[in-house]
Amino acid sequence: MPIRTHWHPLPAVAAAALLLGVVFGFVRATPAKDAPKEAPAASADSADSADATPPPTTRPKVSSEEKRAHTLEYLEKEYGKRIASIDWTVRSLGVILLARVPGPSATKKLFEVCEKDKHDMPRLLAWQALLSRVGDFEAKENSQFFNDTLALAEKNAFNGDMRISLAEVLGANLPTPAAKKAWEKVFSECNAWEPGDMAVLDALGDCLKNWHSGAVAEKLIGFLTEGDVNVRAEYVLVRAGCPVKRAYETLPHEVLDPLSTKRHHRSSASIWKDQQAQCATWLRKEKGQWKDRAKLEDKPWQTLQPRYIPAPALLDSIDIDDADWRNDMELGKPDLKDFEAVFVVDATGSMGDVLVWLNRDVARMMAALTVVCKEPPKIGVTFYRDFDCTFVVRHVAMSQKMATLTPELERMTADGGGDIPEAVREGLADAFKNNPWTKSSGKAKTIILVGDAPPHENAVSDCYALAKKCAEAGITIHAIKCTTGDHNDLATFDQIAKAGGGSSLDVNFPLLSPNKYLGLSGKPSPIPTIARPECQLLIAPPPVGDRAGTHVLLHVLQDAVSPKYRARMEPFTRTLLAYVDHTPPEKRLPFPADTPSLMKTNYKAQ
Known about the structure:
The protein has 22 helices and 8 strands. By secondary structure, the chain is an alpha/beta fold. Strand 5, helix 19 and strand 6 (504-508) form a beta-alpha-beta unit. Helix 3 (88-98) crosses helix 22 (566-579). It is flat. 41% of the residues are buried. The model is unreliable at 1-51 and 602-606 (pLDDT under 50).
């Protein structure tokens, strides 16, 4: 007797899961409750019952390979619907999901998005998904991918860490005029004071080494006598194979000590003129070897590594029964109607590098959230020091305009705080009580506590109580435990974050120099503003893992946008942060010969 099936409205995700189950054998169809009952079976005493055989099944047997192929085909179509959405955020997430599906059909769709989408974010995500597949590309597909790369570079779409992958792709291809133009643009916008840019400069040097382009090397040598660009030009040349020692490495040991009385050195102009002459001599000797590569051998693009989007799983390794595939169907658009955040930041003497980060990355966070929020985000800052400092708390009200926040951030300096504990409680209280937090539960609201020292012992319980009140008001607290040279016990930060419904992060802020230079006011001066060779010839230390700002913003943004699907949201968030990241221009100061010895000062007492 045929089975009568009663259809009821189902959510889209449940319907998709049921369809997959019924078609491929995950779910067995059952009769409806009111379906007519079948006639009773024959009695066991019947003479015919012993010889009866069950009727043959009408469902064909489906092999695991067929089930896998049909399921992936279905998912590819579903992801394709997202890619066709009018909303660029939905298209972006569709690309991330499609990137998991192996095979030429998915690759073709990714190429179409990379070439035709009208918004840079889906195009960049599709580009990264293609980058994760280049190990299977033959020359024709690589040529298409390379041309798409150059088209995105021409649109200035590559920013932040994505410039690393851009330089790697350039290095795995021929140095065409368009490729050189893209290389030179990335180089011109790098900054050797920035830890995050050192990996970009490494990739540019490796690219130049692969190209063996004498013309590009000659341009870099010409830059060695240009003040703001000479340090990074030298760094890239050395990375590409130039054997000349970096200028910093040629300084006598005494010059590296600002307290030494035997400080004899040449002026910056003299040092760089000599560096230029040595590099030019090297290139002349190597002229025969340094000619643009004219042919690709051994398919070098196939060794490129993905950055934000992993390679699709091998077809034979895919387990279609894994619920992870069906869970992808639940991932909706990042629906962030409003976002409010207040940074609560220790501004005592050890936090100078953190304040530099804050000044830049508050702007980056504002830019990223502006792209995805329906309403402009609101961001505020509360600075705190201690009771014996010039102030205990300084309030910068929440604002939707970065132009309002920037002057306050730039004015703040790191000062005071000779002992270890700081006024953490007062900072939290100001952020919670003195800002116009919205009452709506649909808003993303967060306090980001940033410091390298714990609260006073008699204030710890108050901090926990404040954190619980924040959580009750729908405000999540994240705690950023900074390593700035001091190694204080910040277990209280973990507990504050836990009470506030958030989490804590350990973040390292690498120092440009082990020395701190105080101005006439007694306050620390940033290293790039010190016109001395041991400062101006420095380069930033490369970050270990994510640089501090990216680490913090990833954590906060992913939780605000879609915490349940962190793994799927991470490529979106990383790409978004890179897309809005713009490195400030590099500035280098000339210095005279024989800069004087400096007087030692008790920095902790300042």
